[in-house]
Amino acid sequence: MNETAWQHALLDAITTPQWQPDPRFDAAALAVYRNNYRVGLMEMLALVYPICRQLLGDEFFDALSREYVKATPSASGNLHRYGEGFAGFVAAFEHTAHIGYLPDVAQLEWALHRGYYAADATPLAIDTLAAIPQQQWGELRFRCHPACQVLDSAWPLASIHAHHQPATAGCAVDLHQAQPLLLWRDGDGIMQLQQLPPGQPAFCLALLSGATLDAASAAGLAASPAFDLQAALLLVLQHGVLSAIKEPS
Amino acid sequence: MTATLPACAGIGLRHPHYRQVLAQQPPLGWIELHSENFFDGGQPLAMLQQLAARYPLSLHGVGLGLGAAARPDATHLAALRRLLDAVPAVAVSEHLSFNHDASQRFANDLLPIPYTRAMLEVVAANVAEAQDALGRPLLIENLSSYLAYPGNDMHEGEFLAGLVERTGCGILLDVNNLYVNQQNLGTDVDAFLAALPPDAIGEIHLAGYTERSFDDGSRLLVDTHSRPVYPAVWQLYRQIIARFGVRPTLIEWDIDIPPLDTLLAEAATAQAILDQYTEAAP
Predict the structure, then answer these.
(1) A128: domain CATH number?
(2) A243 and A143 in one domain?
(3) CA distance A3 to chain B (A)
(4) CA end-to-end distance (rounded Å), chain B
(5) Quick one: A124 and A205 in the same domain?
(6) Into how many domains does chain A fold?
(7) Mind telling me how many Å the CA of B39 is from chain A's nearest CA?
(8) Measured between CB atoms, does A74 come within 8 Å of chain B?
(9) Of A65, A99, A117, which residue is a domain's last?
(10) Are residues A199 and A139 in the same domain?
């Protein structure tokens, strides 16, 4: 159908980075669509990555996001899905590759963005767990809250994040300190983050990927001999990381 | 019978005013919000549920692109269905536009579509697929466009009428879009309106455009939703209400969003026009 080809050509003409005059499309009209396309995606990036923007400065960030848009077509009708690959892009981009923490900051901002909109889930009640004989806990697997994430970063993400929040703006950042993070959504729907002690990142990552409590505990111990299972379990229950006990398959 | 929006004025509610409207609860006939901003869950969905408990709610989608030659994105449809299951929306609308092709490449915009017999069958199948997936009829909105397919064998009004006939969908009539198309593309407004099945018109949109001039002296009205409704658009709105009767009418403002009071004043202007024709009715 010619109509299909025309739509295809219009999408090409709008999304291609290098515009060339196309006799099928009026230049002024195409300029409006091409501008809408780029501005819409760049505004979304600025919205999702405010800390990256502060770190790089508005002008540099906008130039960077223009390059990202050139390299990364939109893959969803939902604009909120745009920008997932930004962390990988800044890690590989020649003018930002030297800023070691930037990809992890971008990853944190993407996780905060997705977590904010993530589906709802009720936290696992402690009574539900308490009703199960403790000797069976090791075999349990859990469904986790969709907003929760662990970022096992070698950079001080909590400090960098705090440095860019109004209430704690300008607080000290020690770039030599690793701060692996747990991200969760509180009862008001606000994304929260907390630095995890040694062993807990591996423990939480294992739980999030559906491992049994025994396997998660072993992962925590393997990562650090200081791993404290009781403290780790309390933390994930307190923050609603666990949502339900999975039925044995 | 399915519920419908009240035939009075409402406003498009955007991020800067969410909290103010929840706190002050101004007397508004109804509100409309963009579907995609509430996909999945969290605080946005909780807030939408609070708003829906207070006002009749219309959900307006910008992302399905049902006018594509390709089928609608199943992931997007499923997310919209989950939203409709979570929130009691009185009306659900999409645009007569496309935003993707079969390779799942998207432009997050409302792009014009060919108005041809062949295209009508494709778009009707898309609308039917969406309505089946959502379990309810949609209102489909006429578009402001800056380009036209060179092989059109009908106009947008006839195309919309064909969609209504084939799918049972309703029509969201955007008066600003119609005016912008008349100015930019020479659209025949009378022919457009004459083609519409009056009973299918379930909602009306009003907004402001921006005029852009180009080096070659040409000008383009761009549907920016960034200004008050222009006098010429109010005039066309009066004609439309006189012709079709009162309809739920929305003030849309998406860029450079003014204080809530400005939106409420625009809505009051629309309401005053609706009131004239409500009283005039037997």
Answers:
(1) 3.90.930
(2) yes
(3) 6
(4) 24
(5) yes
(6) 2
(7) 7
(8) yes
(9) A117
(10) yes
**Which domain, by its residues, includes A195?**
120-249
Let me know whether A131 and A102 are in one domain. no
Q: Which of A36, A82, A118 sits opposite B40 (nearest CB)?
A: A118
Q: Are A215 and A95 found together in one domain?
A: no
A176 plus A222 within the same structural domain:
yes
Question: How much of chain B is helix, strand and coil, in % rounded to 5?
Answer: 45, 20, 35
| Gap from B280 CA to chain A (nearest CA, Å) | 42
- Give the end of a domain, one of A92, A117, A142: A117
Could you give the strand order of the β-sheet that contains A191-195, starting from the edge strand earlier in sequence? A149-151, A181-185, A191-195
In the predicted model, is pLDDT for residue B1 greater than 50?
A: no
Tokens of B158: 């006839």
- pLDDT value at B15 more than 60: yes
- Would the CA dihedral through B181, B186, B187, B190 be positive or negative? positive
**Dihedral over alpha carbons B168, B174, B179, B185 (to 10 degrees):** -50
Query: What backbone phi and psi angles, to 5 degrees, belong to A223?
Result: -75, -35
Q: Which residue of B has its CA nearest to A116?
A: B42
> Does the model's pTM come out above 0.90?
yes
pLDDT of residue B281: 55
- pLDDT value at residue B249: 98
Of B204, B116, B190, B198, whose CA–CA distance to B161 is shortest? B198
* Residues A232, A227: Cα–Cα separation, whole Å: 8
What is the distance between the alpha carbons of residues A42 and A110, in angstroms, rounded to a whole number?
Answer: 15
As a whole number of angstroms, the distance between CA B97 and CA B107 comes to 11
- If asked whether residues A110 and A127 sit together in one domain, one would say no
Whether B88 has a pLDDT exceeding 80, the answer reads yes
Mean pLDDT of B149-166: 97
